[in-house]
Amino acid sequence: MTELDYRLEQYILNITGPEDEVLQELNRYTHLKIMHPRMLSGHLQGQILKMLCFMIKPGKILEIGTYTGYSAICLAKGLNEGGILHTIEINDELEDISTKFITKCGLKDKIRLHFGDAKVIIPILDDSFDLVFLDGEKSEYLNYYQLVFDKVKTGGYIFADNVLWSGKVLEEERTNDYFTKGIKEFNEFVKTDERVEKLILPIRDGLMILRKL
């Protein structure tokens, strides 16, 4: 990030307004206590997810990749009255943290936590969704997409995070770089998938928005 990029980001955050108090606490806790804190959505992306939810007005959301719960909280804040968000996390050691902060935000009744492999859990979720947020294992994005597609309502949305993968999508793949390979395979697949409209926003590490036709 250049000095100008940094200054512009700070300007954007200043105009966007302060981070919610509980989210700020979660942000700090994650950076101090949890490995790979870069996985946290953060204030700007969190606000974008919340705003998009307010516009879409989803009744049911599915998130793949809870981590410490930041994005789940932001998405759930934009749910319609009586709406539910299901979120799946493979690392059950994060359960106490996500549960604590979800409860602290007053969203315990709106968010249902599932722990385990998303590829196993998705097929047994007997529900349809207005919005799906993909933010789990990057090597599995295409598998997630294929598993959730029929569960997304016509006119519904799929968001996919990290689709630019720090610019690695432009580079030659290394043999053992399964994450970059997974992201590129997913991007190339949806590029030609005529069942969806697609758009990549160059926000943070790239946010893809897909609308099911």
Overview of this structure, please?
With 213 residues, the chain is α/β, with parallel strands linked by helices. It has a single domain (3-212), classed as Vaccinia Virus protein VP39 (Rossmann fold, 3-Layer(aba) Sandwich), CATH 3.40.50.150. Helix content is 42%, strand content 21%. The protein contains eight helices and seven strands, in the order αααβαβαβαβαβαββ. It has helices spanning 3-16, 21-33, 42-56, 70-77, 95-104, 118-124, 141-148, 178-191; strands at 60-64, 84-89, 111-115, 129-134, 152-161, 196-201, 207-212. Strands 3-2-1-4-5-7-6 form a seven-stranded mixed beta sheet, with helices on both faces. Strand 1 (60-64), helix 4 (70-77) and strand 2 form a beta-alpha-beta unit. Helix 6 (118-124) packs parallel to helix 7 (141-148). The longest helix is centred in the first third of the chain and has 15 residues, at 42-56. It is globular. The N and C termini lie far apart (37 Å). The model has no long low-confidence stretch (mean pLDDT 95).
